[in-house]
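Ticket #511: bound-state structure for magnesium ion.
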Amino acid sequence: MSSIHIAQGWNFNNSYTLLPEPLFAPTLPTTVAAPTTVLLNQRLAKDLGLDLAQTTPEEWAGFFSGNTLPPGAMPIAQAYAGHQFGGFNMLGDGRAILLGEQITPNGQRFDIQLKGAGPSVYSRRGDGRATLSAVLREYLMSEAMYHLGIPTTGSLAATLTGEQVRRETMQPGAVLTRVAASHIRVGTFEYIARFESKEVLETFVDYTIQRHYPSLADRENKALALLGAVLARQVHLITHWMRVGFIHGVMNTDNMSIAGETIDYGPCAFMNRYHSATAFSAIDVQRRYAYANQPPIAQWNLARLAGALLPLMDADTDKAIALAQPVIDSFPVLYHIAWLQMMRQKLGWAGEQAEDADLITALLDWMEGQNADYTNTFLLLQAQLAYADEPPVIAQWMETYGLIGSAGSREQPYDETVFKKWLLQWRQRVGAQGQTDAAALQIMQSVNPAFIPRNHQVEAALAAATQQQDYTLFNQLLTVLSNPYQPQEGNEVYQMPPVDDEQGYQTFCNT
Ligand code: AMP
Ligand code: MG
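RESOLUTION: The complex was predicted; output attached.
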């Protein structure tokens, strides 16, 4: 490695390439015509130990497009399978190439992957490319999730290829530089269980434990321990999604990370009005991946993981199932506990009381019936505490954020008697167990985002960037979303729900 490369901070150590060959295929990125990096994540670069000041924008564009390999990179495409909308398919990295694993200055290991860097043996009929629009969407959404405090893959750069890709129309092509704890998926285990030997499966379980769950290394039944640990991280992750109204949109088993990060941002979107059956993805006609289905689908996916791991749990399949079943059955129980705790925080409640679950359900049912905005309803509760003695301030506040008044065209529900009655019960519960309003407010403000990526804002930012090459809106939105829990003077417009009812809002996998 030359001294300039050392100064740039590349520090690859590629453990995945030491695994048995059928788990990956060495694959070089296909070079592109004219790469230009349009977004560079300074924060993430610093965390990775990369020094962007040590080189020119042209050189970074070379690295992040796949035209130049960073020193130490050993590019591969990973093999995996997966259940897509319930059906099993062989998949693999068809449009993503893993450059390698970067060891950070504090010793952490992260995959650096180029998404959209050209075809691999797993591409089937695909072109291995990504559209600028899909790349920008993933960049924005993953940054939003990061700042919301939710486990997620990161986006290090977005790089135009200077080439067009053919979708329904011709569109500018781009590459996303994605950073992840790893790209090991539920579907990776399904692939091995279906097509490889038990020895390979065993090797891979050991590898995964060493990489993500080192404390399980001495467990007697490692496969069973791994299943439980992955399940616990998914409970944690899905609870976060539900907290902020995030809908992943395509929770196929190949899109579920063993490390517990949100991964594979495609048709994901945040819910505005609270409707438990909200599904934005155009291809999800059955609403399999709707908001409220996310916990049971996570459990379903984990059952696929269990199925793949069974041969290692016990040589006798019945005995293996008897071991795995209680773990899978624990999901709804653990999720309910985590969800209740999360909702209590959103509502500013200390401790636990018997009526909590009923009160929470009553609020959600009311929101659903009234088309209330999920995010802003919790902010309204915060305003009730913050301005308890100043009703006119609350009214002013509601107008500013589009909860009442002319900003929203639809009827505003907060004057409604059922809600007012609920408010009194909620207010009493806040003060229970001797808690002060100030303490309640502090908890609420740490879990109720003021700013989420509102679909209409996301679409406007993407349209300006992809159609006019104008990144002003995009960068503004990125900045607003980097501080989601604090009030931001002058940025109230980003807290407004869309004026129309969004019934027809659709997202696309637009690969
Ligand atoms: P995803 O939508 O990211 O979950 O991808 C599902 C599968 O389709 C994965 O195996 C991808 O690698 C593959 N795929 C998606 N888009 C493309 C593309 N443009 N070219 C080749 N393979 C693709
Ligand atoms: Mg995927």
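RESOLUTION NOTES: Residues 6 and 71 are 9 Å apart (CA to CA).
TICKET STATUS: resolved
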